Amino acid sequence: MAASVFDSPLYAQLFTTGDAGRLFSDTAAIRAMLLVEGALAKVQGALGVIPELSAAAIHRASLEIQVDPGAIAKATGENGVSVPGLLAQFRAEMQAPEFAQHVHWGATSQDIIDTALMLRLRQALTLAETDIKAIVSSLADAAHEHKTLPMPARTYGQHATPTTWGAVLAEWGMPLIAALDELEAVRASSLFVSLSGAAGTASALGPKAAQTRADLAQALGLNDPKRSWHVDRSPILRIADWQGRVMAALSHIAQSTIGLTMTGIEEIALGTSGASSTMPQKQNPVGPSAIIALGHNFTGQRATLQAAAAHQHQRDGGAWFAEWMAVPQLTLCLASALHHAKTMVSGLTPHPVQMHSALTASLGLIHAEALSFALADTMPRPKAQKITKMLCLEAQEKQVPLADLVAADYPDLAPGIFDPSHQTGHAVTEAETFVARAQKHRS
């Protein structure tokens, strides 16, 4: 197989990344760097830092010239960064040395590479936002429809108390809504332009360095950090943190989905599933499994990024190079997971009969908490808990439903404590609250 599943024709449909995949190609990286160089020249021309004729020529050329990644590979290997080779090729292609001499004026390679990365991450965040909104919308529609459908809640993989399918869907969707709510703040605190020169002091940019940086940020639609962030990788880490929270939410959905489709449980069905090569009866949960695998990979790359954030002095090649390896993988892992999640949640179908069966299959022991609180109305709570535990043991030993034992020993207790629809607490409210919040994020 290919070194990365995202570059593999064989696995292209299993780990598809959509438009995000096109943002992390060599061609896209070069195009973004040229856009930065062109915008920088245009801004410097307007400020009188470089001649306006040179600025206009450089800006126009940055939009027209195509640089083959292979043509600058040797220079990149020698220099450790792609910008020197890119500039040499760009100047040669301009065929106007009197203008080309002013390209990259006062900037350093890291300024161009980091700013170009932010341009691509900005697009990646927008694509992720669109996908999350679609997922939230599907979850909200289903939560509204099934807000009263009772099913067992599970803690530590075991039945706990009754909940509703709508509340479960709300639980899945709320972290995604939180991520949407946080996204503007992430953009404001992270999508920075970089323009600080060779050692972060902007010495070669002259007295208009701060104004040049601010104008470049405006020209590119990025934010002005008002400082150098060459060795402060907090902007990258904040974006990765946001991506990580979304990935965690998707992994939770995937893990829970697999649990609810297991043989013998099957409380929900997937709209799409995978075939086994030898077992015709099987329909494998391919989408959820892919999300979980992507989450594992994301976690490993996130650790790499954290380590790479510790730079030495004013620039650190080893740390910076490691970041280049991690950031695309993090972004593409999330993009692929979002693709699977969109497909998965839009096709989920609850099985009410199986849900009801799961509620009644354990002799009604799922209602033990409700029983203990009902008994506590007429006796001390510790005594009520002790009696409830004894009744549960008796039900298991005699294989008699808990409700029958309670009816015989405590006939005055309300029978509603054994009705799942009466024991879901605020589940319906949770579903309704989620639906209302999701409405604000519909396109």
Walk me through the structure.
- The structure is a single chain.
- The protein is 62% helix and 5% strand.
- With 443 residues, it is mostly helical.
- The protein has 3 domains: 17-105, Fumarase C, Chain B, domain 1 (Orthogonal Bundle), CATH 1.10.275; 109-196 and 229-361 and 424-443, Fumarase C, Chain A, domain 2; 362-423, Orthogonal Bundle (Ribonucleotide Reductase Protein R1, domain 1).
- It has a two-stranded antiparallel ribbon. A two-stranded antiparallel ribbon has the order 3-6. Strands 4-5 form a two-stranded antiparallel sheet.
- Helix 8 (165-190) packs parallel to helix 17 (427-439) and helix 11 runs antiparallel to helix 12 (317-347).
- It is elongated.
Mean pLDDT: 92
Strand content: under 5%
Distance between the termini: 39 Å
Q: Which spans have pLDDT < 50 for at least 5 consecutive residues?
A: 275-282
CATH topology of the largest domain: Fumarase C, Chain A, domain 2
Strand order of the largest sheet: 1-2
The succession of helices and strands, N to C, reads HHHHHHHEEHHHEEEHHEHHHHH
Secondary structure class reads: mainly alpha
Domain count: the total is 3
Provide the CATH top-level class of the largest domain.
Mainly Alpha
Overall radius of gyration = 29 Å
Based on the structure given, which CATH architecture of the largest domain is correct?
A: Up-down Bundle
As a percent range, the share of helical residues equals 55-70%
Number of strands: 6
What name goes with the CATH superfamily of the largest domain? Fumarase/aspartase (Central domain)
Dominant shape = elongated
Largest sheet: 2 strands, antiparallel
